[in-house]
Design a protein that fits this description.
Order of helices and strands: HHHHHHHHHHHHHHHH
Helix content: over 70%
Number of strands: 0
């Protein structure tokens, strides 16, 4: 029997066919998650604008009870976290794991689409309930308690095939750190979500401990779900586009394990000096500072990997978003350390500084990395290229300017609020006076969310055109140097 000898051309052709088959197998669920997530992102940023305006002008749009600050703010955060964040993360996780494992999604697509539909219906019902005053008043878990079992089942419908792909992985070129982070996110989110919801909804009489568990949940979702997905995406796309391997496997491994060990111990320092056992706050504070170790390890590895390749950052939309998202990771670590350390955290607790940490983590780091991933993944699933370089540039710069403004202004406002609250000379001032004193910062927050909403509107329209197959017909990637420069970078498969 005559066999065809293997040549570089035939190997490349076989590899391209294998990747095309994998992309085709996950196309429906991934595009569904990205599209619906983009709608929720648009809504969440608009709610963020309204919430910021309502904080300084409560009479804005009248005194309708459904759009008070107390209802708009949790609706804004829940839409951002569950509507956009988790959905977009699942889409990126599914695609990267399929590509890295070399596994097609051969069955269960209809189950994933159905789970996605139920996820969106449940989020819609939950956020409407929050706006109608049915909130649980538990931060990040404000939606009615009947919501969480549905969301958990839907999440597990996606986590199971991702974990199976990992188990059946074909690893001809070695194991990549990106799959570690994605697999970890698959297990860590259900653990945190079940623990917090069972404790807060099923165990009566927790008292002040309930507030501590809620703070632990928020930190857990950020550090053990959004951060791993963001780092996993960065570790996948940076070497892919620069053409350089990860600088140090040892640094990558150390960064993963230190995050895995420390990430689940922080959160209760938010109530340092409060009615919780002192050791709980102490452990949370210590790990909040120690988390600078994985932040430094990951940041150093990314820096070494992109060394000498900064021209690619300027040209590639994916690398530009991921690179700047990676820059926000150390910023989030520093803000967490400031909020956690006893010598600064006592002054920053109960201030806008905590909002700064949430925004820089969920939007500055995670969302920017996911935007970069979407700019890479969608052309390979839709079969066409992004239409407009200008829309991508505007999306990038408005996002960077907006999120930077929110983070800086909220941090400065938190610092001022903390100084005022702890100043003995202000003993006769009410808390409302401190809110009024931070008016300028909140106005800047509203403007920043408006700019981000504008950028997300362009991103949503662009994404819808791509999903509809109305993108540019070209075999070359869309680059930022020139309008549709077909030769600046190779088309990475």
């Amino acid at each position: 029997m005559q066999t065809i000898p293997s040549t570089p051309d035939t190997d490349l052709q076989a590899d391209n066919l294998r990747r095309a088959a994998i992309d085709k197998s996950v196309r429906g669920p991934v595009l569904f998650l990205f599209t619906n997530g983009a709608f929720w992102l648009m809504l969440s940023t608009l709610l963020g604008v309204l919430a910021a305006i309502k904080l300084v002008e409560p009479e804005f749009l009248g005194d309708c009870q459904y759009i008070t600050y107390g209802r708009l703010q949790p609706a804004h955060i829940n839409a951002l976290v569950y509507g956009w964040g988790v959905q977009a993360a699942l889409g990126v996780m599914l695609w990267i794991m399929a590509r890295r494992s070399g596994q097609e999604l051969k069955s269960g697509k209809s189950v994933l689409i159905t789970a996605g539909v139920f996820w969106n219906i449940t989020i819609t019902v939950g956020i409407l309930a929050v706006l109608m005053g049915k909130s649980t008043s538990i931060e990040w878990l404000e939606m009615p308690k009947f919501v969480w079992p549905v969301l958990l089942i839907c999440f597990l419908c996606f986590a199971w095939p991702i974990a199976r792909m990992f188990g059946r992985a074909i690893r001809p070129e070695g194991f990549m750190v990106s799959t570690w982070y994605i697999l970890g996110a698959c297990f860590w989110f259900p653990w945190i979500f079940i623990t917090a919801n069972v404790a807060l909804h099923c165990l009566p009489g927790l008292g002040a401990l309930g507030a501590g568990i809620d703070a632990w949940y928020i930190h857990g979702v950020i550090l053990l779900f959004f951060v791993p997905v963001g780092i996993g995406a960065a570790y996948y796309f940076i070497p892919k586009i620069t053409g350089q391997p990860i600088a140090s496997a040892q640094l990558a491994s150390a960064g993963f394990w230190t995050l895995a060990i420390l990430g689940g111990w922080t959160g209760m320092q938010k109530y340092m000096g409060g009615p919780l056992p002192a050791w709980m706050s102490a452990i949370g504070a210590a790990t909040g500072v120690l988390l600078l170790i994985p932040v430094g390890l990951v940041g150093l590895n990314h820096h070494l990997t992109t060394l000498g390749k900064h021209s690619a950052v300027a040209a590639s939309p994916t690398l530009r978003f991921v690179f700047f998202g990676a820059l926000f990771y150390p910023v989030s670590g520093l803000i967490l350390a400031l909020n956690s350390a006893f010598w600064t955290g006592a002054g920053l607790q109960f201030t806008q500084s905590w909002y700064s940490f949430q925004v820089v983590s969920v939007y500055g780091f995670f969302s920017m990395c996911v935007f970069g991933a979407i700019y890479y993944i969608v052309p390979r699933l839709s079969g066409c290229e992004w239409l407009s370089v200008r829309l991508i540039r505007n999306h990038f710069w408005f996002s960077v300017y907006g999120v930077s403004t929110i983070v800086i202004m909220s941090l400065v406002a938190g610092w001022q609020q903390g100084a005022d609250l702890n100043n003995p000379e202000h003993w006769d001032q009410t808390f409302m006076n401190h809110v009024v004193n931070s008016r300028a910062y909140v106005v800047s927050r509203a403007v920043a969310w408006a700019l981000i909403s504008f950028s997300n509107f362009m991103f949503l329209i662009h994404l819808l055109l791509m999903v509809a197959g109305l993108g540019r017909r070209s075999s070359a990637p869309t680059l930022l140097h020139h309008e549709h420069d077909d030769h600046a970078l190779p088309a990475h498969a």
